[in-house]
Amino acid sequence: MTPGQQLAHRGWQDEFVVYNNLSGDTHLIDGDTLALLTQLRLAPATVGSLTQALGAGLPPDDLAALPDTLDAMLDSLQHLYLVEPC
Amino acid sequence: MLTVGALTHRELAARLAGPGLFLRTGPFTNCIRSNISYLVDGVAQMYGQYAIDESGFADFHVQFRQPGGWRRWFRPQVRFDHDGLTPFEPLPVDQAFPMLEWMLNYCVSSRAHGYLIIHAAVVEKNGHAVILPAPPGSGKSTLCAALVSRGWRLLSDELTLIGLDDQQLTPLPRPVSLKNASIPIMQAYAPSASFTRSATDTAKGTVAHMRAPDVSVERAAEPARAAWVVFPRYQADAPVTIDPITPARAFMRVAENAFNFSLTGERGFHALGQVMDGCTSFDFTYSKLDEAIALFDNLRVAPR
């Protein structure tokens, strides 16, 4: 998570809006993306550890695809200045 | 309470030309100064029922004057000064009243950051308000004018003011701005309403204003709660249709129509979120005003 990011958000059903207090922008995200951001707020993490934390209960095929999915999600979030590599 | 209508035309012109008319509109007092007859006439016609603030304080100081020089004999213009600055180019003098309306909107949208300000009409009935955000040309003001001519209370046709702390909608009832084809449509639809003369060749085409209903102005101190967010779209010959929008998507679209969403920061974010918590949102297409009003009259508040 980008240092100083507060991750203020509000949600309805499986859609959320998140306020980036560093850029002033607001983004529309889904529940999976919010779960990823919430996990990253706890501590910096590798894709491997995120896969372990977020993949619990997934069918094997979905679990195998999860790292690539997380990579793409992290890339998108980096473009929004919500996360950054460390 | 002294109202604009209690002044004779000569007294009104003298105030405008001299110390200024301290016109109360919603929560704001505007000190307006001008010696332009078009503007005096427009104020007399559109603001007769409004209170004059005699405290001597004004939130906004605006002046409309004709520049000097030879040009004033051939192409007379109106120039706008705000707190001693001239932020915009002058316009033809017969656009003085529309310019007053645009500049009062400018003052609010650029200064009143105690509110989250949405570019949206807002009307209310039975305690429940409808916010109508929409880009120019969507038919927002026409629909707003039609609704207030059929019993809905006008809070504003341009600026929805959301309290950052209490999320209440603060009324700012002022004349409804109509453009081009919507002018004769509304003159026929609300024949008892008062309309200004049309100003042609403005940046927005032909423009006229419809006087706000007296009852809306009388109730300008009564805030309202939003129950619906409706994105209207006029489409010729289209039947009335409504398409639900999820709260998160409606939130994003309303935020796009806000003047000061970034400026209000996290407070504005949460204020809008709390408004959306209490609202049902949908896209709305219409072509016939009677059908549109019938649908609005039958809106039901969703249980929370």
Please explain how this structure is put together.
The complex is a heterodimer of chains A (86) and B (304). In chain A, α2 (47-54) packs across α3 (60-79). The mean pLDDT of chain A is 93. Chain A has 86 residues and is an alpha+beta fold. Chain A contains three helices and three strands. Chain A has helices spanning 31-42, 47-54, 60-79; strands spanning 8-12, 15-19, 26-30. In chain A, 20% of the residues are buried. In chain A, strands 1-2-3 form a three-stranded antiparallel sheet. Chain A has one domain (8-79). With 304 residues, chain B is an alpha+beta fold. Chain B folds into two domains: 4-111, no CATH class; 115-297, no CATH class. Chain B has helices at residues 9-17, 37-46, 71-74, 96-111, 140-148, 182-189, 214-218, 247-256, 261-277, 289-297; strands at residues 21-25, 28-34, 60-65, 77-82, 91-92, 115-125, 128-133, 153-156, 159-163, 169-170, 176-179, 199-202, 205-210, 225-234, 241-245, 280-286. In chain B, β1 (21-25) and β2 (28-34) form a beta hairpin. In chain B, α8 packs antiparallel against α9 (261-277). Chain B is globular and about 60 Å long. The N and C termini of chain B lie far apart (41 Å). Chain A binds chain B through residues 6, 8, 10-13, 15-17, 19, 21, 24-26, 28, and chain B through 246-249, 251-252, 255, 261-262, 265-266, 269-270, 273, 276-277.
